[in-house]
Amino acid sequence: MNKDISLSAQIHSEPHISNHTAKLNWLRASVLGANDGIVSIAGLVVGVASATNSPQVIVTAGMAGIIAGAISMAVGEYVSVSSSRDTERALLEEERKALLESPEQELQELASIYEHKGLSRETAMVVAKELSDKDAFAAHVDAELGIDPDNLTNPWHAAFASSAAFLSGALIPLVAVLLPPSEMKVPVTFVSVLIALVITGTLSAKVSGANPVKATIRIVSGGALAMIITYGVGQWFGVAGV
Questions:
Q1: Does residue 91 fall inside a structural domain?
Q2: Torsion angle, alpha carbons of 203, 209, 214, 215, to 10
Q3: Distances (CA, A) of 241 to 29, 42, 52, 122, 214
Q4: Are 52 and 238 in contact (CB under 8 A)?
Q5: What is the pLDDT of residues 12-66, one digit of tens each?
Q6: pTM score, two decimals?
Q7: Which range marks the domain in which residue 104 is found?
Q8: Residue 20 domain-assigned (yes or no)
Q9: Number of folded domains in the chain?
Q10: Residues 128, 114: Cα–Cα separation, whole Å
Q11: What is the CA radius of gyration of the chain?
């Protein structure tokens, strides 16, 4: 009996694990969004700064890039999360219908899930019955779908978070390219961006459990390559335009 209670308590604790995972996913998405803002706007302003020393042109290009990038991130995240949410709602409705039409079959299915997790058939059936008696729908969607029907991701929240993360990262290269004198704009921006990428690379590795050195090298290398290429393009067009 105590074993059943312990198992039941463990099963009820799974939503906390799910919430923790969701928070990690949000944090990971925020770090990656900031990284996108840093790299894309750094490439843009370095390319423009290598072609012209005009602060007005650099600011205009940087602000246009930030606005376009933030909107693009928001729209992309909204569409993605909305599609995912629609799919989750369809699965929830399908499960609700199945419980109404064949409750006994669904009970057996729930018991089989816990049996496959390592419980004996008898214990799995006890757990399935107890959870079903309390809230059959919640028990089934948690075990079968891993979805919390009361905590579906809000696409507006996702869009805002993605856009804000991009904006926070994008401001770093824009500020870095505007503050120094003309001859130091590109070097200062380059160094500032690499430092920021080291930070985002380290944070990304921590939240994903990856090797921090490898993750940081990948991110820094990608950002450096983007700035080198756009710097070369800016130089070429700047010379061609003379």
A1: yes
A2: -40
A3: 40, 22, 10, 80, 40
A4: yes
A5: 444 444 455 555 556 667 788 888 999 999 999 999 998 888 889 999 999 999 9
A6: 0.72
A7: 2-15+25-240
A8: no
A9: 1
A10: 8
A11: 25
